[in-house]
Amino acid sequence: MPIVVATIKTQPGQTETVLNVFRAHAPAVHQEDGCLLYAVHSGPDRVVVVENWADGAALDAHSRGPALAAIAAGVSDLLAEPMDVAVLEPVAMGDPAKSTL
Amino acid sequence: MPIVVATIKTQPGQTETVLNVFRAHAPAVHQEDGCLLYAVHSGPDRVVVVENWADGAALDAHSRGPALAAIAAGVSDLLAEPMDVAVLEPVAMGDPAKSTL
Q: Looking at the domain B3-98, which fold is it?
């Protein structure tokens, strides 16, 4: 189950506009095959998406799909720096209930 | 429920050493009051912790507590750049089951 953390640093005052792009397209992402989690968060200078995919093939299909292309196009003029997308693996430790997305 | 995403960019070859610091202290964090999620992930150049706290007071207590101090001390010489800690709010959209940590 690859975990993805995507960080979108936004230009000043543009966080809500970026969130509206995600509001428009997150429902389609949620319906993609193998999408277990696609949770959008906001902070003062950024939007952060925490994702969980059933397997690498599902993540690959999402990465090539129309919803992500629409999101990337929608936010491209609103970024303070290039989007940072980290593909990660969970590491088991401590309490399993509190260490697993 | 504040969500925290902490990104630790690691020096080359040091990711496993950083993970061992988290393995030593994550069990204590999981027992802190109001810790709902403290999930550690690894990638080629980083360790990313996704956290969920019951409220701001719980996060404040964690931020001042001994477990985080021990983690910060343990990884301080292993960082490629300063640790990035983002305090975020979840944004509801789409399928609730797939948009909430």
A: Alpha-Beta Plaits (3.30.70)
